[in-house]
Amino acid sequence: MYEFNFQRPANSDAAIDAQANAEDGQYMAGGQTIIPVLKQRLAMPSDVIDLGAIEDLSGITIADGTVTIGAMTTHTDVATSGDVLGAIPALADLASMIGDPHVRNRGTIGGSIANNDPAADYPAAVLGLGATVHTNQRTIIADEFFTDLFETALDEGELITNVAFPVPDQAAYMKFPNPASRYAIAGVFVSRTGADVRVAVTGAATCVFRAAEMERALAGNFNPDAIEGIGVDGTDFNNDLHASAEYRTHLVSVMAKRAVAKALG
Known about the structure:
Blueprint: E1 5-7, H1 12-21, E2 25-28, H2 34-39, E3 47-50, E4 60-63, E5 66-70, H3 75-80, H4 82-87, H5 89-96, H6 101-106, H7 109-115, H8 122-128, E6 132-135, E7 139-141, H9 142-145, E8 146-148, E9 151-152, E10 160-166, E11 170-177, E12 184-193, E13 196-202, E14 209-210, H10 212-220, H11 245-264
Parallel strand pairs: 1-3, 2-3
Antiparallel strand pairs: 4-5, 5-10, 6-7, 6-10, 8-9, 11-12, 12-13, 13-14
């Protein structure tokens, strides 16, 4: 890796100042993406700013029908949280499917959504539950947060502080994982809150997206049969050694029906 300055600030303000004063500063959350990238010399930041010592960026709270998760909360903490399991079991279930034990014990929700890997799991939960991303500067609704391949609405130096998930009536996540990495070749998160239904797809395209036609069908009848024969346009889907675009298109339909069935219990 290239030479860089390593900083480990004790609070959010210090981290933001460190990034602002660096020539090309890069935040590091769990390090599950940035460390391999640095080792392969695919990035050359002047400073790596480790957020691991900032206690107020971690933790889970529930209030007024909302589960709020600090940006530095690990996947394992979400997967094993009694509060999350009680309020949004689908979210805990999703977290338990991420990577392997090493990744789950080091990786964080904030790092995952800020990176916006097209095959990551958490973006599907954020979009599928209609969550709100809170930063040091503003709040960003899920539908405006993920913008493109590895891109989000975050500005340079903007720091995610927490993610707020409204508690749904029913929700579930199903994915077809890559057997080696456990990344989603295709994953679907489905939620229903009253008459509002959201269906978020990850892994299939270059960025997580909502399946509008499925949402409309499920709003009228929240049952797997309601989306029988309803597919998604896979014209621009990923086409690689793991799966063809055609196969991913098929998987989205299968995972969506399984997610609805799972949500129904």
